[in-house]
Amino acid sequence: MSRIRTAIGGLRRLVETVLESGRRRASFAGAQALSPVFVIGANRSGTSVVSSILAQHPELEGLFAGSLDPSRSIAGHSIGFCESSHVWPWLMPDEAQRRANGDLPFWGLPEYLASAYRCHVSSDRERGALAFAVERLRRTPRDPLIKDQVNTLRIGLIRDVFPNARFVLVTRPWRDFLARGLDKWARDGLGTRLSAARPVAGLHWYLLNLVARYDLEAYAPGRYAELWLDALQDSADSARGSLQSALKAIRLSSFEFDLAILEPQWARTKGTPARRPEDPEFGLIPDIVEAERTLLRELGADRG
Asked: Edge to edge, what strands does the sheet with 143-147 contain?
């Protein structure tokens, strides 16, 4: 009799394991069918502001932790908010080396890119884990809105996990980025080493924006929008027009956002000429990507 009870107990555990495995696979499959929106871009580029605005949209749910409101440091610079680094904390690059080198803000430099850049998952198990990590944080049926700047270097990985993912790339013109960023990093007390003999902030900005645009064309063509911070800060009409264009690009319905967060900037820029970014190098990227695809097809090397 004890052997029968032991056998029945073992069979019950086996059935429970199979059922749990099935439930988990179904949960992973459901999570991968999501259509999340990822806000990406270099630090000091306006990703927090854009995330705060987009989170108002009735089709989106911001998966944010920490502060949801803007605040400023003693030096007068904005502090990041609407953060989603808690979604995939194990993917965060180790900052110890950057901190030791005085490069903490510059995770886009060549010597650090390898530890953060991902273009695909390592296994089906990782794909499921990344999808489920997003699913478990949802509280509504709306599409997840995720803002983690390091996701700028994970566009291919994200599309591998979420085929329906969409992206909003936020960019600040390089002159503004340098002026505001360098002033902050010179005052923030984080030990950032700034030197005219080693001008790395511009390289950080350039490489992140270059990689982002290339990977968006390579892995997510037609599934992303670009927002330039200066267009949002220029005027109410400019901001509304830019945001509506972005919504259309990522297949979200038109929506009138509350743009109070931008009003102080409009007051400062009132009466000044509108600035528009120039990015001839970035503008070549769609042509480069398409030319490579064409050549690969001609060589018979198009494997999907």
From this structure: 60-62, 143-147, 37-40, 166-171, 224-228
